Amino acid sequence: MPPRRRARYDEDAAPYGRRASSGMPVEEDGPYDESEGEDEDERRSERRDDRAAEPRRRRAALNAVSAGRLGLRYIADLTSKDTEGVTSVEPVENGWLVDVEVIEDRRIPSTGDMLSIYECQMDDEGNLMSYRRTRTYRRGTGAYGGGL
To answer: How far is CA 128 from CA 115, 123, 139, in A?
Structure first.
């Protein structure tokens, strides 16, 4: 059986009126209510004007960990393939270079999977500048194409 709901002291104060998040009744024409003559389109254009007047905030500079996570997310979104993980993160002159290992083709057994390394370059703010596939290989082969 569900627990009984306790009565609140202000339930009878305004049974059909509006309530604030605190549960207290709200006056119908409060200082923050919408004006009746204002149109939705006018409010949208005012908000747009307010955003345009504010300077665009810059994101904080990336560190290696956040650059790797962001690069992994970019490659996963762009290729729509499963990613294995980040293989390298390297700072470059104006940002970061991140290598991500991607499963190109799944095979049975999994040692036959085809993998690729994608390289993505990001600026200091984390915006993707470019990406490309640099290498494709079979799982289990070493860095230079030989066995382990």
So the answer is: 22, 7, 28
The stretches in the chain having pLDDT less than 50 are 9-16, 21, 30-34
Number of CB atoms found within 10 A of residue 56's CB: 6
pTM > 0.85? no
Q: Do residues 98 and 77 touch, judged by C-beta distance below 8 A?
A: no
Could you give the 3-state DSSP secondary structure of residue 41? Answer: helix
- In sequence order, what are the residues at sequence separation of 6 or more whose Cβ sits closer than 8 angstroms to the Cβ of residue 70? 62, 98, 122, 126
Signed CA dihedral, 64, 68, 69, 73: sign only: positive
Nearest to 138 by CA among 146, 126, 130: 146
- CA-wise closest residue to 96 among 143, 57, 73, 130: 130
Q: What angle do CA 129, 96, 54 make, to 5 degrees?
A: 65
